[in-house]
Each structure stands twice: as C-alpha cells, then as structure tokens.
C-alpha cells in the first residue's frame, strides 16, 4: 500500500509541476491523471484486505462498515476542502498539498509495519504435529 501512495504522490506532484509550467499541454495532465487512477486501482483492494489483519475475523463487519463511512466522509469533505484550497491558494499549490498528503499516507503506512498473513497466523496458532509438516 505504501508503494502505491508514494507512486501516487509522484504522479500528483507531476500534475502540480504541469500546472506551474506555462505552455504545458493538457494531454500530459490527462496522462498523469490516468496513471494516478491506475495506481489507485491497486491501493483500494490492498486496503480492504488488510482490515482483517488489523481487527481480526470477529470484528471484520464493523470495521468494514466504519471504513466505508470514513471513506465516504473523506470523499465529501475532500472535495469541499479542495475547492476552498484552490480558491484560497491556487490550483497548483492545492495539488502540491494533495501530493504531500499522499506522501504522508505512505510514511504512516510504512510506520504501521508488517501485518502477518493468514498463513503466518495459522502457523503461529496451530501446534506442529510432526516434524514433516513443518517443511510442507
């Protein structure tokens, strides 16, 4: 997930540079926006699948619901805050702030550390019955 956040930060920063550089064609901004959207396609499933590792199987429904609510609030509030920022400091600076928040997101995900996979959890929970099972 952090790799997608870092890559999105780079592409969004590229969009900001295109906004600041006079004479940049809109096609370059469209391409960078498409690349950013493509990278986001990989981030969303990774986020959803990591929830079970954080909260466990017993709380997955509640956590998924809360994540959906938080995501929808962020989408609505993000558009409003983005519009205010564009009006207040300009489009290029607002896009730079977006890139900075993506960079911060990647750093925070890296700081969260590794979540054990379900296979690793099962190996920790189950006692080994015989020596031959450990190599299978």
TrEMBL record:
Tell me the InterPro entries matching this sequence. MFS, MFS_trans_sf
Question: Topology relative to the membrane, per the entry?
Answer: Multi-pass membrane protein
Q: Where are the transmembrane segments?
A: 12-32, 76-109
Protein name per the record: Major facilitator superfamily (MFS) profile domain-containing protein
Which PANTHER family does the record cross-reference, listed alphabetically? INTEGRAL MEMBRANE EFFLUX PROTEIN-RELATED (PTHR23513), MAJOR FACILITATOR SUPERFAMILY ASSOCIATED DOMAIN-CONTAINING PROTEIN (PTHR23513:SF6)
Keyword hit for Cell membrane? yes
What SUPFAM superfamilies has UniProt attached to this entry? MFS general substrate transporter
Q: Does the keyword Oxidoreductase apply?
A: no
The protein's location, in the record's own words, is: Cell membrane
Q: Name one Pfam family in it.
A: MFS_1
Going by the UniProt record, its keywords in alphabetical order are: Cell membrane, Membrane, Transmembrane, Transmembrane helix
Reading the lineage from the top rank, the first entry is Bacteria
């Amino acid at each position: 997930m952090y790799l997608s956040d870092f890559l999105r930060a780079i592409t969004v920063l590229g969009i900001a540079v295109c906004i600041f550089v006079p004479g940049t064609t809109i096609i370059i901004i469209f391409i960078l926006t498409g690349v950013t959207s493509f990278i986001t396609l990989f981030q969303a499933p990774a986020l959803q699948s990591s929830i079970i590792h954080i909260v466990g199987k017993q709380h997955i429904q509640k956590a998924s619901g809360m994540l959906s609510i938080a995501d929808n609030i962020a989408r609505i509030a993000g558009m409003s805050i983005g519009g205010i920022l564009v009006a207040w400091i300009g489009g290029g600076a607002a896009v730079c702030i977006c890139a900075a928040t993506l960079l911060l997101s990647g750093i925070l995900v890296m700081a969260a550390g590794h979540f054990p996979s379900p296979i690793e959890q099962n190996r920790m929970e189950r006692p080994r019955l015989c020596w031959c099972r450990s190599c299978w």
